[in-house]
Design brief:
The chain has 12 helices and 5 strands. It has a 5-stranded parallel beta sheet with strand order 2-3-4-1-5, with helices on both faces.
């Protein structure tokens, strides 16, 4: 209904945006620069942000552009578990049959990582999403995966992605070994008021529509309701367009936007 009414070629403001059509906000450019530095120089990185700020999208979009012949991306979307559970997941990502005991499993993973670098010339990049859910022993295990005794080579790149709680967890003394290895970090904020306008236009254009579908009052109300958090912006914008189409309104005004805010439960 929305597509036909407004003449969209595809639905705008989707949950899974095309990496090639991401709006180049200042925050996204900052994240991209840091991630590029991380893969060039290796080590560990940290990306945090509020729920819906675009952390996972940024990580997935960046890694989608890496050469699969040069990088092996291992993506763990974490749920609470033990350090052994974490190692088993890493082993599976490395196409290994996980060993039974933790020490054997850690050695198995380390050997596989070295083989990837030396034999296949492929560098592994381990991404732990929702890393604020990792238990303390699991976080304490991560520096060991980065440590290859007296060998100065960096065989593994680690990216931790999570909510602000992750930063507070890493500030604890027990996680000093991991914190010292973090070479790049960034905290994602919401879009600015000016960026929100540009994001709306960018998304509509990507969907095949160039005329503005949100008036000034609607854009201001949208920003006030979402504070520029991407997931909230996209959800509310699409809800507002659906309501406008149902009411045969060719532009979203403040009244429709406020009704959409109630329906979207923001």
């Amino acid at each position: 209904m929305v597509e036909a009414f407004f003449g969209f070629k595809k639905t705008p403001f989707g949950d899974s945006p095309d990496p090639k059509q991401l709006f180049p906000s200042q925050a996204w450019n900052q994240v991209k620069a840091r991630l590029q530095f991380l893969v060039d120089h290796r080590g560990a990185g940290l990306i945090t942000g509020e729920v819906g700020s675009g952390k996972s999208t940024a990580a997935r979009s960046f890694t989608a552009g890496l050469n699969p012949n040069l990088f092996k991306v291992m993506y763990l979307h974490w749920t609470p578990g033990s350090a052994l559970d974490l190692l088993r997941q890493v082993a599976l990502e490395l196409d290994l049959e996980p060993a039974h005991f933790r020490g054997d499993l850690a050695r198995q993973i380390s050997q596989a990582i070295v083989r990837l670098n030396q034999s296949k010339k492929q560098h592994p990049l381990l991404i732990c999403d929702e890393a604020q859910l990792l238990c303390h022993p699991a976080l304490e295990q991560l520096p060991l995966l980065l440590n290859f005794d007296m060998d100065s080579s960096r065989y593994l790149t680690l990216l931790l992605v999570g909510q602000p709680l992750l930063r507070r967890t890493l500030s604890l003394q027990m996680h000093e070994p991991l914190r010292q290895r973090i070479a790049v970090q960034y905290h994602l904020e919401g879009l600015s008021r000016e960026e929100l306008d540009a994001h709306l236009a960018h998304q509509l254009k990507a969907a095949g529509v160039t005329q503005p579908l949100f008036d000034d009052t609607a854009r201001q109300a949208l920003y006030q309701a979402t504070k520029g958090i991407l997931r909230k912006v996209n959800k509310l914008a699409l809800t507002a367009l659906r309501l406008a189409a149902a009411r045969k309104a060719h532009q979203v005004g403040e009244a429709i936007l406020l009704d959409a805010t109630t329906e979207a439960m923001l």
